[in-house]
Amino acid sequence: MNNISDIQKKIVEDIQKYGWHVIKVLEDEAAPAFGYSIGLFKTFTHPEILIVGLNLNLIHEIINDIGKDVKSGKIYTSLAFYPHLTGGFECYFTQVKQEFYEQYVGQALWYYDNNSFPLLQCIYPTTKGTYPWEKDSAAGIKDIQPILGEIKLN
């Protein structure tokens, strides 16, 4: 662990202490703000979590809530809805395609030293209850919350 940055030292320390770390990435001209976990897979053999397009503090809170659920034994799976993660709304989880890992989860790639860890995107609805894949979703929602995996609804 020589020659690692202060951020990387903090990642390692948090994973050892709590079981995971949350990375928050500011919005820029190329992409909306997003956050993701590192350590859920190593500590609990559970997929890491990615959330795109919400307020960074809310992203951090939701990922920590998911981490606490995972620590207590809950398992989140791809292609499923889960209630009560964001103000009573159901969130949908999808397996992120590995082609997006480099763009979104660079520190996780560093930590695991490869891209062989699973990553779930938590997709949330608008305040009106519509999801980015729905015809009547708000204009621009797909830019704010791009879908990085498959959507299969029953």
Structure description:
32% of the residues lie in helices and 22% in strands. The protein has a six-stranded mixed sheet with strand order 1-2-3-6-5-4, sandwiched between helices. It has one domain. It is built from six helices and six strands. The chain is globular and about 50 Å long. The termini are far apart. With 154 residues, it is an alpha+beta fold. Strand 1 and strand 2 form a beta hairpin. The model has no long low-confidence stretch (mean pLDDT 92).
Describe the structure using short key phrases.
6 strands; alpha+beta; 154 residues; 6-stranded mixed β-sheet; single chain
Question: How is this fold's topology laid out?
Answer:
Elements: H1 6-18, E1 21-25, E2 34-38, H2 40-44, E3 48-52, H3 56-71, E4 80-86, E5 89-95, H4 101-104, H5 106-112, E6 119-123, H6 141-144
Parallel strand pairs: 3-6
Antiparallel strand pairs: 1-2, 2-3, 4-5, 5-6
